[in-house]
Amino acid sequence: MEYPYMKNTSFTTQELVFTALMTALVFVATYLPHIPIPLGYAHLGDAVIFLLALLTPRRSALVAACFGSALADLLGGFAIWIVPTLVIKFVMAEIVYRVGRRGDAIAPRVSIIAALLLSSIWMAAAYTLAGAVLYASMSAALTSTLGLIMEGLVNSIIAFFLLPLLRGRFPQF
């Protein structure tokens, strides 16, 4: 018996390879430009996440965002942040996907800007709250907020300006 809600639950080989490559790209962009800020680090991985959410299939973008970022936390010495990162990056990519796309097409510029800014605001707020819980101190967590806001803005600007160069260059499974 076939269940309609179970359709397309497995990855094809092509999707699996593509998703693994995009996960590695998120990891490298997150791990290598490691810019220390209070309670963590800033990086360029969110620009990659934003672009993937706008240009690639939803499932690949979400998996790459979550696991590429979590792997960077693990290998970067921030294992305590893995669970918050999985949730925060999932929601970030989902916001950009839902607000910045219209079906298989990219939405108008104003929607893309809104998607990037909403996702960045979510990221800064969520990491601040997660820091408050992990370190049992809201004042300690707030020390990272400005760095997180700047990280979100920089990544949003990079993604926005790279988007026209990358349109049509990714597979749609």
TrEMBL record:
UniProt keyword terms in alphabetical order: Membrane, Transmembrane, Transmembrane helix
Membrane-spanning intervals of the chain: 16-35, 78-100, 112-136, 148-166
GO-annotated cellular components: membrane
InterPro entries, per database record: ECF_substrate-spec-like
Taxonomic superkingdom: Bacteria
Family annotation (Gene3D superfamilies): 1.10.1760.20
PANTHER family per the UniProt record, alphabetical: UPF0397 PROTEIN BC_2624-RELATED, UPF0397 PROTEIN SPR0429
Name used for this protein in its record: ECF transporter S component
Native species: Selenomonas infelix ATCC 43532
Upper lineage: Bacteria, Bacillati, Bacillota, Negativicutes, Selenomonadales
